[in-house]
């Protein structure tokens, strides 16, 4: 009825107002989160699919909010991107990874590949190359192979400037991995233009590869095409033994997902490496 519809509209706009209010509040709190040392990095192990040993980790950001508890990145990365706060946050992530890498070296851990997510907003920033060049001079840098995970949108919207940035950063010995592969335009052919050495198959395809014939074919095709272009492949979101078996049988190079391990605090990741070995 009309009355019901009207009430719904009111509820709807109340929800919208509430959402807007929460967003403004999160934005204010996000601005203070770095100085207040509220960010923490978790490390999710990435293993060699064939041998099972640890190849490295993906660093994933967590916000330890004073009253909300641990806030997942999906709830604040977009706000950070819209407000430009992702730039100082991204710089913090990189310096924290390198600090941790140096601490791991001192504690006798072998060299690992550590991947960091870099958003498109950061790539459009002029200061990115300088920030990363400076980071490459800190003691942790030589202890790991640093991998930047970028999404297809970075490459699709790429200008000559972005391309030059990608190459300049690549000269520091930093590698690139194309994240969420399969969700965007997904043309592997343009990858030849860029210094990208890895692709990560999005977990939505990995999820259904053992149940859905189309996803199975797609995963198989991505692995084969990537290999024929000389790229390594990581499958993300591996949750079951059947998925692992499927991926190994199709020569996927690396595996990441809850079956192997959830993202771990640094100390637990260290134990994981000691238990499972590395290469
Ligand atoms: P992503 O880069 O695709 O990261 C993988 C996400 O999948 C992580 O969520 C991880 O916890 C989750 N995941 C791992 N294994 C499994 C699994 O087996 N099943 C399922 N269902 N999920 C799994 P998380 O940590 O919540 O991060 C979400 C997104 O936030 C990331 O997606 C990434 O795009 C972004 N993000 C995280 N940390 C950073 C950062 O430091 N900087 C930037 N710019 N973005 C970040
Ligand atoms: Ca990622
Ligand atoms: Ca991903
Ligand atoms: Ca994602």
Strand content bin: 15-25%
Q: Tally of extended strands?
A: 10
Low-pLDDT windows of residues? none
- Tally of helical segments: 11
User: Average pLDDT, to the nearest integer?
Assistant: 92
- Helical content, roughly? 40-55%
Oligomer: single chain
- The secondary-structure class comes to alpha/beta
Strands ordered across the widest β-sheet: 1-2-4-5-6-7-8-9
**General form:** globular
SSE ordering: HEEEHHEHHEHHEEHHEHEEH
Cα Rg: 20 Å
Q: Identify the bound ligands.
A: ligand C2E, calcium ion
Structural description of this entry:
The chain has helices at residues 2-33, 77-83, 86-106, 120-124, 128-135, 152-156, 160-170, 203-208, 213-228, 241-249, 266-276, and strands at residues 39-48, 54-65, 69-71, 112-117, 144-151, 175-181, 198-201, 232-235, 254-255, 264-265. Helix 3 (86-106) runs parallel beside helix 5 (128-135). The termini are far apart. Helix content is 47%, strand content 21%. The protein is built from 11 helices and 10 strands. With 279 residues, the chain is an alpha/beta fold. It has an 8-stranded mixed beta barrel with strand order 1-2-4-5-6-7-8-9. Residues 179-180, 200, 236 line the site of one calcium ion (CA).
């Amino acid at each position: 009825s009309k009355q019901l519809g009207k009430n719904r509209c009111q509820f709807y706009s109340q929800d919208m107002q509430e959402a807007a209010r929460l967003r403004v509040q999160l934005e204010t709190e996000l601005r203070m989160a770095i100085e207040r040392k509220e960010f923490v990095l978790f490390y999710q192990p990435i293993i060699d699919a064939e041998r099972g040993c640890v190849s490295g980790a993906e660093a994933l950001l967590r916000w330890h909010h004073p009253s909300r508890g641990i806030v997942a990145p999906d709830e604040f990365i977009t706000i950070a991107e819209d407000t430009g706060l992702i730039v100082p946050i991204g710089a913090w992530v990189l310096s924290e990874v390198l600090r941790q890498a140096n601490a791991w070296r001192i504690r006798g851990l072998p060299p690992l590949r550590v991947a960091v997510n870099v958003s498109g907003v950061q790539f459009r920033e002029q200061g990115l190359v300088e920030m990363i060049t400076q980071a490459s001079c800190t003691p942790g840098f030589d202890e790991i192979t640093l991998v930047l995970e970028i999404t297809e949108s970075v490459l699709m919207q790429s200008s000559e400037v972005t391309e030059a940035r990608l190459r300049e950063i690549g000269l520091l010995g930093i590698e690139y991995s194309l994240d969420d592969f399969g969700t965007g335009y997904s043309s592997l052919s343009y990858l030849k233009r860029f210094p990208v050495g890895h692709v990560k198959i999005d977990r939505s395809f990995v999820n259904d590869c053992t149940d859905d014939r189309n996803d199975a074919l797609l995963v198989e095709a991505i692995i084969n095409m990537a290999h024929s272009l000389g790229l390594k492949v990581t499958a993300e979101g591996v949750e079951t033994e059947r998925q692992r078996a499927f991926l190994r049988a199709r020569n996927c190079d690396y595996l990441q997902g809850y079956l192997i391990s959830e993202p771990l605090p640094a100390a637990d990741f260290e134990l994981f490496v000691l238990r499972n070995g590395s290469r």
